[in-house]
Structure formats: C-alpha cells, structure tokens
Amino acid sequence: MDSKNNSSSLLSVKTDIPFSDKIGDPALINSKGSLNLVFNNDLDLDTVSDGIKLFKITSDNTEIEEDIIVDKIGNSLKALNISRSDNSKFTEGDEYKLSISNIRSLGGASLKEDFNNYFAIDYTFNLDMDGISDLNNERSLVVCISDIHLGANDSYSEITKNREALVNFLNQIRTSPNVKELIIVGDLIDEWFIPMNLETFNGKTQRDFVKSVAFNNKPVIDAFNNIINDNNVKVTYVPGNHDILIDYDDIQSIMPGVNQARDVKGLGSYTPKDIPETIIEHGHRYNFYCAPDPSNRHITQSDSILPPGYFFTRMATSSVVQGRPKRDEDLPVVTKNELGTDQYRYFLYWNVWKGLVTDFPVHEGLDEKIINTNLDGFTDYYAINDFLPYQESENDIIKTNLFDGIIENWDERQDNNLVPVKIPIEDAVLRGALASFLDDQSNVQFFNNPVSDKRIVIFGHSHEARIITSLNEKQEKNVYVNSGTWIDKNKCTMTFVVITPQKSNESAPSYVSLYQYSQDGEIKKLGSQAVINIK
C-alpha cells in the first residue's frame, strides 16, 4: 500500500546503533561519526529539521543541544544520516540523547510516542605512548590486574609462557600518558602452588622465599619497580589467598615504595581516592576455603590463619605435576548422621572435599605424611586424611584432624575478617568453591547492602574474567568485574580491568572495561559498561 494513502498507520524507526531509554544506563557504542535512521514510510522532510535533535548530557543531567546536520541517505525519503555540523565524531567519554518528535510521513503517520533514547561513546582504548586522544594526555585511568601467581621454581610455576607478555604490558603501563594507578588485586606471589613433598622455604625464611620468587621473575619485578620509581603511576598491592602470609615488609623488600592496602592479616581492600564508590579486593574474604582461618591455633601455638584451601592446593599441585594419575585408593566413606545441624554441615563439608580430592588424584596414599609445611606455625608433615573429615565408627560422629571447629566458628571467622554481610554456613560450604558464588558477593556485600555506597566492585581470585551489571535499590546501575588471571593455562588469560572516571563536570559517564592482552601486544575488549554520575 502506498504510504501517501496510509495516514492511519504508525511511523516507526530503526537505528544502526543500540539505544537505551534510561538516562542512567545508556547503550555503549564505539567511536562513531554519524547515526543512520531508517523509517518504515517516506518522510515529510519539512518536519525533519525541527523533529530530530541531539543533546549532550552533563553530569547533572542537563541537556545541551548539539548542532547537527540531517541528510537523506541517497534518494531515499525513509533513510536519514545524522552528524555533527562540523563533521567531527561524537566525543568519546560523553553521553548523548537522540530525540525524535513531531515528525510525520508523507501520508501523515506519526510515531506512537516520542523517541527519547540515550547512548554513550566508549573510549578507543590503548596503552600507546601517544595516549587516548579524548583524554587530552591526562592521567585518569585506574588499571587492575590480579592472579599473576609468580612462583619460585619454573618446573611447577603457573606463569612462565605469559611472563614476557606481562613484562611488555607493564612497560606499556609505565609509558602510557593516561594511566594514573595500577592495582595488583592479590595473588602476585604464590606460596601455595608447590608440590606436597617440597619444603616451601627450602630451609630458609619466608623473606628468603619472597626474594627467591623475585629473583626467578626478575623481569616482572623490575617492570613493577620501574613504574614505582618513575612516580608517575601509583602502584598498589592488595593481598590474595596465595600470598596470604606474605606481610608488608616482605612486599617492601622486593618492591620498595609500593602502596599496600591491608586491613585484617591476610586481607585488604582498596578504594581509589577519586572514585570513592569503588571497592577493589581479591575476594577470598568471602570464600569459606580461602579466607583467613584461626581453627588450627591449638596445633600451631601461634596466630596462624592458613585456611583449608592451602592444603588442597598443595595436593592439587602434586596432582598436576604428576599428570593427574588415577587414584588406586578409595576414599573412606562418611555417611549422614542424625547428630545435629553442625554434624550435617560437616557431612556437606566432607562431600565437597570428596569431589576435590577425586578430581585431583596423586600417587601418594591418603595416610602418607607427605605434605611438608614449615610455615605459619605448622612444623609437622601432614597426610591428605589430616584435612579430610572422617567418621568415628563407634558413634557416627564426623570429625577432622585439621580445622577442627571450622563449621562452628564460621560466624566468628567472618566477624574477624570484616565481612560486611554474614554468609550462611551451608551456602559457604557448598558454593564457596564456585566462581559464581564469588560473583554473587558483589551484590550481597555491596550493591544490595543498604549501608554500602559502592557501585563498582572488582574482585580477582576465581580466574574467571567477566563483567556483570545490576541495579541497586535506588535503581542505579552497578558494575561488577572479575579481573581474571595471567597464568599460562586458563580458558581466558592475560586479562585486566580499566576504570575511566568521568573526564569533566560536563561529562556524565564513568567507564568500567575488561580487556585481554595478547602475546603480540594486541589488546582486545571483552566488555565495557558506562556508569553514570559516580561521585
């Protein structure tokens, strides 16, 4: 049917970019010089000039109208191109509103309702010496990396192949004119991923171990120290679980002058000064198996904090080194009893261990005293069965040699570890080892916590890089990012996070982006989100 004779039909429009109808959650697009609109009917061009407007949105939601040119695309009366009057691209780092109203077709059709939608222009990110043009060579970027896992011995270290690329990345951070801060979000040094039979410190001290890691990874540590010594980029270290025992002085001994964010022993979190609604931490604070644990202090006669994940990691390292051999020995059977809630929870705890031990078999027997500790007050050799729950045949009670009381002391442990919102014990036991459970804690601990003001949360720990958005009770957009890892063998490795604050009071969005570095220095964007009006 001819559109001239179809005055009762509605006018509709399609665009070549995504839009959002929420000013606080604009669609994010790459740098672009113009927009294309395609309508379903031929347009009355006399209605176009006043009917299509473009506005830049400022941080206080003021709309500043842009001078635009609206042209037909070819000879079509249905397709329009919208560009700025000076033909420049839309400015990176800004939010825009496209408004279409009072526009009609030749047949008199109009839109069912006014088109008022929002988009923001992402930065064309790079770490080149020339910098990001729309940042005007200003230092504002906050870069986060985590889970590097530097080891003392390349025969079992988790990062060897990616080490050179990491050095190249750090050298680019050093020379970029836009990077303001570099944050190491835990697990820089790996004191856990060591075969069971090896003595961690080789008869020496923890400080010696840290220095041996630095020596074995000298180009990496040198690259960090070059950044620190230049004093152009603030470098901050936050502890993880694999470096949970490595203290302030240990880190200073290899990276003098690095800023450290610590609270409880083995834990820390960091908020950049200019982005107070952000919190950055490793994430093991919320992990039942990796958070600082005082359960063994009656054994160590010290203020030990090693959690059960340490003993699992020692076993898993041996399993990897041994090629994950088939286990000839069956695990002892533990059955559910009727002796109370805590006993049921120990049964759940055993089931998790059963799966982990089954997945990482070793040649050694379960009762073989093979785990060589000599750290955090532990001086004995331990067997796998020492950290596995077992059941007494005479009374059905489920017990454990190491971590006795770990179920009962969970709430106290969370208090000691400054967990904002208590995690129920059964959730902690059953889901604590899952990456998705850690992701969920961004909502539990911060976004849905009425006393929290955080709208950007960055964790490491899980080695699973991702970016997830949500809304808080005020219907404000929040962004959670996991920074991933740099270890050699991982589904997605060499990842990092970049926070770009709003560049001026005339610009509303801050940006949170997840990137992947490559062996040849190329940078791939894995995801990016705009967050409006971060303080």
Q: In words, what does this structure look like?
A:
With about 525 residues, the chain is α+β, with helices and mostly antiparallel strands. The protein is about 20% helix and about 20% strand. It contains twelve helices and 25 strands. The chain has helices spanning about 50, 165-175, 205-215, 220-230, 250-255, 295-300, 310-320, 340-360, 385, 410-415, 425-430, 435-445; strands spanning about 15, 25-30, 35-40, 50-55, 65, 70, 80-85, 95-100, 115-120, 140-145, 180-185, 235-240, 260, 270, 280, 370, 380, 390, 400, 455-460, 465-470, 475-480, 495-500, 510-515, 525-530. It has a seven-stranded mixed beta sheet. Strands 2-9-8-4-5 form a five-stranded mixed beta sheet. A five-stranded mixed beta sheet has the order 14-15-20-22-21, covered by helices on one side. The chain is elongated, with a radius of gyration of 28 Å. It starts with 12 loop residues before the first strand and ends with a strand. Residues about 1-10 have low confidence and may be disordered.
CATH topology of the largest domain: Purple Acid Phosphatase, chain A, domain 2
* Sheet with the most strands, sense and barrel status: 7 strands, mixed
Summed up, the domain count is 3
Average pLDDT reading:
94
Global structural class: alpha+beta
User: Helix count?
Assistant: 12
What would the principal axes of the Cα set say about the shape?
A: elongated
Uncertain residue ranges: 1-8
Number of DSSP strand runs = 25
Evaluate the radius of gyration.
28 Å
What is the CA–CA distance across the termini? 54 Å
Broad CATH class of the largest domain: Alpha Beta
The percent range for helix content is 10-25%
Oligomer: single chain
Name the strands of the widest sheet in spatial order.
13-12-11-10-23-24-25
